TrEMBL record, chain A:
InterPro entries xref list: DUF1980 (IPR015402), DUF1980_C (IPR048447), DUF1980_N (IPR048493), UPF0703_membrane_permease (IPR052955)
Annotated region described as Disordered, given as residue ranges: 221-249
Pfam families xrefs: DUF1980, DUF1980_C
The keyword Transmembrane helix is annotated on this UniProt entry: yes
Protein name per the record: TIGR03943 family protein
Organism: Microbispora siamensis
UniProt keyword list: Membrane, Transmembrane, Transmembrane helix
Source organism, top-level taxon: Bacteria
Source lineage: Bacteria, Bacillati, Actinomycetota, Actinomycetes, Streptosporangiales
Parts of the chain that traverse the membrane: 34-55, 91-113
Domain DUF1980 stretches: 22-104, 157-248
From TrEMBL, chain B:
Pfam families xref list: ArsP_1
Membrane-spanning segments: 27-46, 58-87, 136-160, 167-186, 218-239, 246-267, 273-297, 317-336
Protein name listed in UniProt: Permease
Keyword Transferase: no
Superkingdom, natural source: Bacteria
Membrane topology recorded in Swiss-Prot or TrEMBL: Multi-pass membrane protein
Region annotation Disordered: where it falls in the sequence: 1-22
Family: Belongs to the UPF0718 family.
Compartments it resides in: Cell membrane
Keywords in alphabetical order: Cell membrane, Membrane, Transmembrane, Transmembrane helix
Organism: Microbispora siamensis
């Protein structure tokens, strides 16, 4: 890689990172909101390195062609030893750029959440939940709903109306579909699906974002251990909504 | 002979190309404009076509791994380039003990002060080696720094509330593995296996040297990070996680399986504690194996190490570290947890 291609790849990479972080909110499809300052800093550094390199190349035009040629020659013998010459593997850094721009990867959806019997893990915050009001509809995170539903002794959900927000994952079973939210601890690579089965409502298409208002259905048998089947709720009302800006929980 | 000197001499004495200046205009802006235009057209034409859910899921995971690792990589490369450009080589011979066997644990313990994840540690370790630090000591640092630094220890303590021994066991096991691996490499390793990245001393200002080193390291390490990201994303999409649940109850096997999961998932060491905590079906010892292996061996690290230190090195060092990590964490987990 000549110095110019190096600078070009870095400029593109830094530019695209700043684009998804500073100009749009699509970085939320990949990492947690708190990661933004680090991404901004990294984007600025990479972009600056690239632009400084491009400007330097541009400023010495006549030396350029000659210099380039010499570099190519040297590169064959001394790959990786000379700092003006980067190994060819550096070209791969343009792949994330192409992926971001051309595929525009959305937040993980029904495809990733598929798998009828995937293990469902309890949310990290399990343990201390505030008591729910009896009258009002309480908006609730899907993870909290699952955590409460698993806490058999307290039964804090019994008879309470709650509203869950998530996307639709259809089920093989006819009587239900899942309102789903992906939970990630760091980036989308470690995301897992939190699912609540919705009974008594016609299934919207996969990946539709919905608000479901309903009540928890206690499991018929207490012998099923936590995490083997998703908790269930009856749906009072299902409203379609646009995708929230923070798609993960 | 450095390039910079060549360039400067050619600016002082007009080269034969002088007259061709107008005939060969600078290519950079044109190439850049062309690429940008192609990307915009691609966005308009291709994006509506590339909507297969499997492809999108793969791309999301791939981009997530790259985006998530980038800040740490940039930090590591900054630090490594700063070491290369601004710290004189004599500093390291003074700071570390002469005896390489004593230098290994010192370097391993030094990992505790550098906050960063494993993507940062590879360029830093290679920078240390090229500055004359004993490879075994730099390797101990490479293994320990992503696992024992304060940020990771705090994250582990937060992820396992009420189980303070998990953070302690992780710290102890990681340090032990790092030092043991360093000593074993010192005793049995051959210098021909390890390609120590050499840095040619160059003319020019410190800042130019700093920028060149950074650009080079970033592209080099970044390229291998992308290879690791592609592999991890592919396995992430192909291998269903349900396969894991079936082995959760088996004692030794579960530790090995979680260790392998850590290799496949390639999660940053500052976040893996939260993932480990969520694997509720597994024993604490198996989770410890996940936490000890993850920062030392994973797909993106294997790619980075093979790229930086050579394939012969990675072929030997990766299995050694993996075995040591599983053994030490199983033993310590049995005692402490």
């Amino acid at each position: 890689m000549s110095r110019m291609s190096q600078s070009l790849v870095l400029t593109l990479l830094g530019g695209v990172v700043l684009w998804i972080t500073a100009l749009t909110r699509s970085y939320l499809n990949y990492v947690k909101p708190g990661f933004r300052p680090f991404l901004l800093a990294a984007g600025v550094v990479v972009l600056a390195l690239g632009i400084i390199g491009l400007v330097q190349e541009w400023r010495r035009p006549y030396a350029n062609a000659h210099d380039e040629h010499v570099h190519e020659q040297r590169g064959k013998h001394a790959e990786g030893h000379d700092h003006t010459q980067a190994p060819k593997v550096g070209w791969l850094l343009s792949l994330p750029v192409f992926a971001i721009i051309l595929i525009a990867p959305p937040a993980l959806g029904a495809f990733a959440a598929r798998g009828e019997d995937a293990p469902i893990r309890p949310p990290a915050t399990a343990g201390s939940y505030v008591p729910l009001s009896g009258e009002k509809i309480t908006p609730m995170a899907v993870g909290e709903f699952i955590g409460r539903a698993w806490d058999f002794r307290k039964r804090t959900l019994t008879g309470k109306k709650v509203r869950l927000t998530g996307f639709v994952v259809r089920s093989k079973k006819k009587d239900r579909w899942y309102v789903t939210r992906m939970q990630m601890s760091c980036c989308a690579a470690d995301a897992i699906a939190l699912k609540v089965a919705v009974l008594g409502a016609a299934p919207p298409p996969d990946d539709t974002w919905v608000e479901v208002t309903g009540t928890w259905v206690p499991p018929r048998s207490r012998k099923i251990p936590n995490g083997t089947v998703p908790p269930e709720m009856t749906a009072g009302r299902v409203t379609q909504i646009p995708q929230p800006s923070e798609p993960y929980e | 002979m450095s390039d910079r000197v060549a360039v400067e001499s050619s600016t002082e004495i007009p080269p034969p190309e002088w007259g061709r200046r107008s005939a060969a205009p600078p290519a950079a802006p044109r190439l850049f404009a062309l690429l940008a235009a192609l990307l915009v057209v691609g966005r308009l034409v291709l994006t509506p076509l590339l909507t297969a859910p499997a492809l999108q899921t793969w791309a999301t995971v791939f981009v997530a791994i790259c985006v998530q690792a980038l800040p740490f990589l940039v930090f590591g490369v900054l630090l490594s380039a700063a070491i290369a450009a601004f710290v004189p080589p004599s500093f390291w011979t003074k700071a570390l003990p002469r005896n390489p066997y004593a230098a290994v644990p010192v370097a391993g313990a030094a990992g505790a002060v550098l906050p960063g994840c494993e993507c940062a540690s590879v360029p830093v370790a290679s920078g240390l080696m090229s500055r004359g630090v004993t490879p075994a000591a730099a390797l101990a640092f490479l293994l320990s720094s992503p696992a024992v630094n304060p940020v990771v220890v705090v994250a582990t303590a937060v992820a396992f509330p009420g189980q303070p021994m998990m953070a302690v066991a992780r710290f102890a096991a990681s340090l032990l593995v790092a030092v043991a691996a360093g000593w074993l490499w010192l005793r049995f390793g051959r210098s021909s296996w390890l390609r120590v990245p050499s840095r040619t001393a160059r003319g020019g200002s410190k800042w130019a040297e700093f920028r060149d080193a950074m650009r080079h390291d970033l592209l080099h390490a970044g390229g291998f990070l992308v290879i690791g990201g592609i592999t991890a994303a592919t396995l992430n999409v192909i291998v269903p996680r349900t396969w894991l649940a079936s082995v959760a109850g088996v004692p030794v096997l579960s530790a090995v399986v979680l260790a392998l999961l850590a290799v496949v998932l390639s999660i940053c060491s500052e976040a893996d504690a939260f993932v480990a905590a969520s694997l509720t079906a597994f024993s604490p010892t198996a989770k410890l194996a996940f936490l000890v292996v993850g920062p030392m061996v994973d797909l993106k690290l294997i790619a980075l190490q093979a790229g930086t230190f050579g394939r012969a090195f990675a072929m030997r060092f990766v299995p050694l570290t993996f075995l040591l990590a599983v053994m030490v964490s199983s033993a310590l987990g049995g005692v402490l947890l």
